Automatic annotation (TrEMBL):
InterPro entries named among the record's database cross-references: AMP-bd_C_sf (IPR045851), AMP-dep_synth/lig_dom (IPR000873), ANL_N_sf (IPR042099)
Protein family: Belongs to the ATP-dependent AMP-binding enzyme family.
Gene3D superfamilies cross-referenced by the UniProt entry: 3.30.300.30, Luciferase, Domain 3, N-terminal domain of ligase-like
UniProt protein name: AMP-binding enzyme
Superkingdom per UniProt: Bacteria
Domain AMP-dependent synthetase/ligase: 35-335
Amino acid sequence: MSRFVDELVATARSARGLERGMTTGAPARPARRVWAEVHRDALRMAGALVGAEVRPGDAVAVLAGDPALIAPAAQAVWLAGGSVTMLHQPTARTDLATWAADTLRVLRMIDARLVLLGDPFDAVGDVLRQHRVAFRRITELAGTPLAEPVPVDGGHTALLQLTSGSTADPKAVRITHDNLAANLDAMTAAARLDVGADVVVSWLPLFHDMGMVGCLTAPMVFGLELVKATPADFLGRPLLWMELISEYGGTVTAGPNFAYAVAGRKLAKAPDGAYDLSTLRFALNGAEPIDPEAVRAFLDAGARFGLRRESMVCAYGMAEATLGVSFARLGSGPRVDVVDAETLALRGRAVPVTGAGTDAMADATADTVADAVTDTATDATAHTATGATAHTATGATAHTATGATTAAGRAGHAGRPVRAFPLLGPPLAGLEVRVVDEHGRELGDREVGLLRLRGTSVTPGYLTTDGPVPAQDADGWLDTGDEGYLASGEVVVCGRRKDVIIMGGRNIYPTDIERAACAVDGVRAGNAVALRLDAGSRRERFAVAVESRLAGDPSAERALRREVTARVMDAVGARPVNVVVLPPSSLPKTPSGKLRRAAARDRLAPLLDA
């Protein structure tokens, strides 16, 4: 039997299911339903699904925008013995014809038995009907309530998590009931969730693992109070996030780095007393590279409203691990690991800088780096610290990684340049992380290599357009595709192995280039991409593409290119072969908002190599 489903049902039928619930539609039209009510609706929906001949193991896709519809629909699929696939939703800049074609490919790949549709996607039924894809509208899904869940064992698929990577071919991570139960337990323990007191506030998309697993499934399974907005709500008014935390006494939230950066800028302009963020104790940062400066700015801006520095928790995660891989230790606040840049780039070793002063990282997070330097001065391994999770993506898959801050050319120890990486904490319970070289030899502490993962929440494999593909080797290890190291047991991620730029025998990480470019006034935050160019007969090179509202003004573009080139040179000690200035919304992104480097390189090839 599925321990995951057993716990979900037990919670709904307990006193907690009658007391705790989910609020949607806030602040304009808030509606709250306790988990017992959600479960009653799910039982009726499950009765209809079983009546529609959904069998144990069948894949059922869900396409809806309202969390109040998605929660009982997803639960109904699990009660009926099926697996849930949350389909990617189109955004304002999505080409709808391409999205429809991609969605149909996904449905064929997962062999979907049924598609459940909800507002605002009811009209998609016409497309599905044309292609003879079975569908039902969630609001019309009602049958005789199931007396008990359809029994499935722990090895059955519970979730097919679609990846959000750069390739045209879709892929889904297969998450079993046992994977889900194990990771939910591990994350709950690491976050020290209190089901009687914690209030989760989230706007994250439910087609992403951090939103679906961390901010809907976990509250539903354990009976946590949940306030759920939508991504459109956040993008339309970013400070709604802070408003909901303030109004509902939110204690737990999560978001990608860019969201904290946006919220920090908005909070800095908000009037005193506008919010009360003193209740927030666990703010998970993940799903994309973490910028220590953005974290510092958010915490500084939030301090006026009672936000505590130690509430920020940085972590590492990926869909292949269900969600979480490692969380920074609670209460330590965001800190970084400051290492010698040249030794890292040339020898692949993260040697702590023990003599740097606070000015060594003046353009990064001065006080955060000062904390890390102070730590390294007394502890050469700098093993205390936090970094951050989300999201999330092993190249194509939604994994949560972290970034680094570079201070090339600025004085570190003995005048040497330094780099600063967020530390992401030890692996969660039930998981192992090791670092290996290109030959599979395990590396030691602070040696940089490929991160591999093994444990109870690691996926057994993928579904692809060419059929199932295993994710683990013979010994159960998953290759994450990420390059990084372990520092006294804590995980540090340097970047994606496939994106590393090698120049003069030095490894240069795209995140460092992108962060330097985004520091230039006029470049849209989070909208710069570093692109490795094929070496061919020449040495390896790279270009930079940035979005700016100055695009189209020749003199402004020239000045912007000069400044970006200078900042990148200063940051990584290498010159881009070209800097391309683009208007807003030009760079291709995944459905979850990550930049797609490979797609950008293909799309911009004529400009990049000009």
